[in-house]
Amino acid sequence: MLDLPSAELLARLQFAFTIAFHIIFPAFSIGLASYLAVLEGLWLKTGDKAYLVTFKYWLRIFAMVFGMGVVSGLVMSYQFGTNWAVFSDKTGPVIGPLMGYEVLSAFFLEAGFLGVMLFGHNKVGPRIHYSATLMVAFGTLFSAFWILSVNSWMQTPAGFSINEVGQFIVEDWWAVIFNPSFPYRLVHMVLAAYLTTAFVVGGVGAWHLLRDRTNKPARIMFSMALWMAACVAPLQVVAGDLHGLNTLEYQPRKIAAIEGLYDTTDGAPLVLFGLPNDDKERTDYAIELPNMASLILTHDWTGKVLGLKEWAREDRPPALIVFWSFRIMVIIGILMVGLGLWSLYARLNGTLFHNRLLQKSAVLLAPSGFIAVLSGWVVTEVGRQPYTVYGLLRTSESLSPVEAPAVAGSLAIFAVVYFIVFGAGVFYTLRLMAVTPVAETEGPPTRQPLRAAGTTPAAAFTTDKTGVEHD
Amino acid sequence: MIDLPLIWAFLLAAAILIYVILDGFDLGIGILFPFLPAGENRDTAMNSIAPVWDGNETWLVLGGGGLFAAFPLAYALLMPALYAPLLAMLLGLVFRGVAFEFRWRDDAHRPYWDFSFTMGSLIAALCQGIALGAFIQGIDVDGRTYAGGWWDWLTPFSVMTGVALVVGYALLGATWLVMKTEGGLRDIARRFARRCAIGTVAFIILISGATLWLVPRFVDIWFSWPTLIYVTPVPIAVVLGTWWLWHSLNHGPDHSAFLAAILLFILSFIGLGISLFPYIVPLEITIWQAAAPEESQSFLLVGTMVLLPLILGYTAYAYWVFRGKVKTGEGYH
């Protein structure tokens, strides 16, 4: 007889698995939708064809990413009920309307105008088409607004009371929506989405620049993306720091787990490396910078930082996962800032489009945003454990009356389906990114484009130029 | 005093009806896909729905989200009860949704993505029908939790409603194609539409009968004086709608069969509403028992009053932009 983990653990795994897949797509599409709006706006304003080429290039990729985001998000909207029915019953009166607003103000806006954006080039004028692009971009941002509000409320609940059947009842909608951690979380996430997109766009631009440094659309992508990295990555560090201070105030347990700190300490050290050990209540193999954690968190050399032992064992989040996810996120953040600064230096030197090492680094860092977003998400969600609504509703008390085999079976099916479907999707997206962006110039081509796929350069060129691969 | 649960029940019912009609026809295209000759015909059929399917499916999210927001108890009871068919439906929709993009990107594997488009549509339609059947026949409730078993949803009745919805969606899809296409494809669609019309009407009769036999309470509603006066227009309208549909398929302008098929769906939905009202979990929980607290329902209602007309407006605009017959090769790909 095979021993199954508990239904709770399986349901958590299922939720973590499906949301980890899902979050990749919105993180990309939020940034990409705004980028497309900027590109189309620049084209309308300057009339420079290269912007239009770049726009159409990323539009195809957007359609792919958005499609995958829609279908994986559809799953999320029902999973609250299937696996977390008690949670749904109790928190429905608070988060239900917020999610309702997301559907009404964001999903419909995106979906309604996506058709015009993708297929409407010959059906509507450029201005109306541009409005459709803007609406899609706004939709993605509205969606982030509401979802982050829901998530923040689960982290730092406010503005509610609890009724006789255990449901959360709203006393003050303003306090619910703009709960204490919401502004920090929203800014942090939207900046993360913009950075994620910027690094993908910059990586793709760099990839094509390495093959042909005169390619105009590739130059546009590379230059715009690195402006974004140079300006937004440092801003993200500030936003992250403020978010951390907010977490210290409202979720000190999460901070203790992030720091791998078990004993409450005055002048807590910053642990650079270590293995938090929840059983023994200490961080093994720790390499520390004395007093630095206190300095960063409390802005005071000997400030007091609470350790995990302040709380009963069953009320603590698992430290090892939170500790390491956080460090992965921070390391990527530092790399992003570094690449941004490097690009500024290259710009001043006039070597932005010639520095191959810079371009190769940009290619390497192309997927870094996704890893950072995923690790950040793990920090915030695992750090909230063992609660679904922080301090109020335990994860173990949120579960549906479903049996472990049912959850295990559906988890297995999800895993298989997601790897097939989204594996194929990622493959096709990468293939679209490998296509050289070709400026629509008059006359015969002066340079032969290079491409991995395609049998002869001539055939590859026709394919690239029209972008129609199936003909 | 405003009866908020009643308003929400109507709004939710309207959202689900709109979903069924809109996603119904594009799921129907998926169901009919293998019967269309490969190549240009399939591409055209796909392109006739490509700009709108995403918006159509959003009504399903509104259905789920609206239920969660306005009637959280019903959401918490129905979702575990319908666990398997709902998850299968979602996975079907995943396979189908990505096919819209993937099939154009990969010549070598196009048949696989076409197959996943069809299977996804078929499974989604079948599971929605099964979920509907399971919902009508009722679920076990104990206090505030679902008390039934893992397989309760699977009965001969729910399988019948599942198949019925597949046939009905195929009718919507076929009549949509009659409206949106020309030439050989339209002739093929018209042929399918006739078969599906016969099937759909047969299922309407069959399920109405089975429902009355299954739940005695429904007999009281439909056959007792004086409610009889109010409810008889529905079956009469079904007869007229059937005649309209058949006439349209043989002689009517290209758009009228689609409208007639929609009418039949609306009438069936109204019939269902008459039987089930005021229950949101049939014969267990009424809309008032499942309702979210007033402050939740009114908060969302305010936004809905503003946003819903806007949504209907720009959705109509999007359909208007893509009005008329779809031309071959009209993608963005």
Please tell me how large the radius of gyration of chain B is.
20 Å
Order of helices and strands of chain B: HHHHHHEEHHHHHHEEHH
The fraction of residues assigned to DSSP E strands of chain A is 5-15%
Low-confidence stretches of chain A: 441-471
Radius of gyration of chain A: 24 Å
Mean pLDDT of chain A: 85
The structural class of chain B is mainly alpha
Helix content of chain A: 55-70%
Tell me the overall shape of chain B.
globular
Number of domains of chain A: 1
Order of helical and strand elements of chain A: HHHHEEHHHHEEEHEHHHEEHH
Distance between the termini of chain A: 54 Å
Could you name the ranges of chain B where pLDDT drops below 50 across 5 or more consecutive residues?
A: none
Shape type of chain A: globular
Instruction: Specify the helix fraction band of chain B.
Output: over 70%
Number of strands of chain B: 4
Q: Estimate what percentage of residues of chain B fall within beta strands.
A: under 5%
Q: Number of domains in the coordinates of chain B?
A: 1
Oligomer: heterodimer
Could you tell me the mean pLDDT of chain B? 90
Provide tags for this entry.
heterodimer, A: 471 residues, mainly alpha, two-stranded antiparallel sheet, two-stranded antiparallel ribbon, 7% strand, globular, disordered C terminus, B: mainly alpha, 14 helices, 4 strands, 78% helix
Structure summary:
The complex is a heterodimer of chains A (about 475) and B (about 325). Chain A is mainly α.
Textual characterization of the structure:
- The complex is a heterodimer of chains A (471) and B (333).
- With 471 residues, chain A is mainly α.
- Helices cover 68% and strands 7% of the residues of chain A.
- Chain A has a two-stranded antiparallel sheet with strand order 1-2. A two-stranded antiparallel sheet of chain A has the order 3-6.
- The longest helix of chain A is centred in the first third of the chain and has 40 residues, at 7-46.
- Chain B has one domain (4-213, 278-321).
- Chain B has 14 helices and four strands.
- Chain B has helices at 4-32, 40-49, 53-70, 72-81, 83-105, 110-137, 156-180, 183-214, 216-223, 227-231, 233-250, 256-276, 287-290, 294-321, and strands at 141-142, 145-146, 279-281, 285-286.
- Chain B is globular and about 55 Å long.
- Classes of the chains: A mainly alpha (471), B mainly alpha (333).
- At the A-B interface, helix 2, helix 3 and helix 13 of A face helix 3, helix 4, helix 5, strand 2 and helix 14 of B.
